[in-house]
Amino acid sequence: MKKRINKKIDKKEILENKIHKIYFVLAVVIGIILSVGMPLFSEPDGQWHYSVSTNMVHLSNDLSAYGEPVGTGLNVQKSAYQRGNHFEQYFENKIVKMPIQNIPRTNSIPPVLSSNFLGHLIPAIGVWIGYHIYPSAGVMIVVGRLFSSIISSFIICLIIKKIQKGKLVVFALSLTPVIAGTLASLTYDTFSYLLALLVFLITTNLLVTKQITWKRIASIGIVSVLIVLGAKTNVKLLLLLFPLVLFILVFEKFKDKRKIHFEFRGRKLWIFSMVILGFIIIAMGIIFTIKPSLIFSIYRIIINFSVNLSPSLSMNNIFLGLLASPYPSYNYMPYWVAGAWYVIILLSMLVDKYPISKWVGLGAIAIFFINFLGVYHGFLTFQGGGYAPAPRSVIMGSIYGQQGRYFTPFLLVLALALASSKIRLQVVSGQAVLWLSAMLAIVSNIILLFATLFGIYYL
Question: What residue ranges are annotated as transmembrane (predicted)?
Answer without folding.
Answer: 21-41, 167-184, 190-208, 220-249, 269-290, 302-327, 333-352, 359-379, 406-425, 432-458
